[in-house]
Design a protein that fits this description.
By secondary structure, the chain is of the alpha+beta class. The protein is built from 13 helices and 13 strands. Strand 2 and strand 3 form a beta hairpin. The chain is elongated, with a radius of gyration of 36 Å. The N and C termini lie far apart (about 105 Å).
């Protein structure tokens, strides 16, 4: 009994020590978990209570672009204001306005139709973004292609459209230059259909205003294309880069452009009280400056007494808009060594002419690929008049059937078996 009692006491002491150790461990674990929870809770509360730092404030005058700009009254053809209107500049995707214009003229002349097919070639697909990225061989209509070019600014679709109109992009560029010469765009030269930077691709604020006016006056039926704020392809919604469409009342187009060498370009058209104006902004340092500068020009045109209809210089007098100096390469100022824009922040503009964003319309659906049309089968003309073989009756005809056939009546044939 004594041995058993001693063994039991020893066993009990070990269990007690283990329990104590476990209790300490459990207490420490609970403390750590509780402490971590409190830390996480405090961090969450800290983040929740932390407010976003207010945007730096600048006046609208400080954010305006210092580079070429122009304001045009479309109906009168008079320039209400310009700065270095003839200064040559890299147009970037403003080029696509000429691509659209040449396509509009091709449709008007009967060379193609809005439902004509455009096919993606290896050359078209090789262009960098902005692009739709459809695989080689994909077909779409001219109408869908135009929407993708104007709204999404798709480089691959612009090249494919050029190939459809003229057979090759090089031939299309020659046609672009012919149209520029005919319109009196004295500072412009086009090398491609999408505005991918090439040293020989040049235009000016005046020339872009001339082109915008030609599109608006000659092809009013296509104005709605430039007014679309977003397109929907499948589940993707692709928005226009033109911020004025949904932040400046009356805006009805037209096109943005950007490469590092050009800075941020914009041609913006707006209509208020029946008066149509076009603002051209070239080489803005960022997207906010580009939009504010265009809104500033448009607002002055609509409100200032010295800019009423009939005032200004005729857009046709090219010599009145200064010397045709060679383009300034904006790359060192605009982009990093990796070709990314340097400026990415925003500021609060005091006295902004832009309004809080409003919804203009729902995204417009676009399609790639050709839908199969459902309808009745139409026989070729040469088969329509062929005699059809009459079914042959089984067995000898009865006397009544023969008499009916001789008199020109219909013969009742036996019902076919199922």
């Amino acid at each position: 009994m004594g041995v058993l009692s001693g063994f039991a006491d020893k066993r009990m002491r070990k269990l007690t020590q283990k329990a104590k150790r476990f209790g300490v461990f459990a207490f420490l674990s609970a403390s750590l978990i509780l402490g971590a929870g409190m830390d996480l809770g405090a961090e969450a509360a800290k983040k929740k209570s932390k407010k976003k730092a207010p945007l730096p404030e600048v006046s609208v005058d400080e954010i305006l672009s210092p580079n070429p700009m122009l304001l045009l009254d479309v109906d009168t053809g008079k320039v209400l204001y310009h700065r270095n209107g003839n200064q040559k500049w890299y147009p970037a995707s403003l080029t696509k306005m000429m691509t659209a214009y040449v396509t509009f003229r091709a449709i008007a002349s009967g060379e193609l139709h809005p439902d004509s097919l455009v096919e993606i070639s290896p050359h078209a697909l090789s262009y960098p973004p902005s692009k739709m990225g459809f695989k080689v061989g994909t077909r779409l209509t001219v109408d869908n292609a135009l929407k993708m070019v104007i709204v999404k600014s798709a480089n691959d679709i612009a090249a494919a459209l050029a190939e459809r109109v003229s057979g090759s992009e090089a031939a299309f560029a020659r046609r672009m230059n012919d149209e520029a010469h005919r319109l009196g765009m004295v500072s412009s030269n086009f090398v491609n259909a999408n505005g991918i930077h090439r040293p020989g691709q040049k235009s000016s604020a005046r020339d872009m205003a001339v082109l915008a006016r030609a599109i608006l006056i000659e092809f009013p039926q296509y104005r709605p294309l430039f007014q679309i704020p977003a397109i929907r392809h499948g589940k993707r919604i692709l928005r226009s880069y033109n911020k004025l469409l949904e932040s400046y009342a009356g805006t009805n187009g037209m096109k943005t452009g950007f490469v590092c060498a050009s800075g941020f370009n914009l041609v913006a058209a707006a209509n208020r009280n029946g008066r149509q104006l076009v603002a051209v902004v070239l080489g803005a340092p960022n997207t906010q400056s580009r939009a504010e500068t265009a809104a500033y020009l448009l607002n002055r045109g609509f409100t200032q007494p010295n800019m009423v209809s009939g005032r200004g210089l005729s857009i046709a007098q090219s010599a009145s808009f200064g010397p045709q100096l060679e383009p300034i390469n904006m790359r060192p100022e605009i982009c990093t060594k990796r070709s990314n824009p340097k400026w990415s922040g925003r500021v609060k503009v005091i006295g902004s002419y832009l309004e809080p964003r409003f919804k203009l319309m729902d995204p417009v659906r676009v399609y790639a690929g050709i839908k199969k049309k459902k309808g009745r089968v139409v026989m070729p003309a040469q088969l329509v008049h062929l005699p059809l073989a009459a079914p042959r009756a089984k067995g000898p005809l009865k006397l009544t059937q023969l008499r009916k056939a001789q008199s020109g009546g219909l013969i009742s044939l036996p019902k076919p078996k199922p």
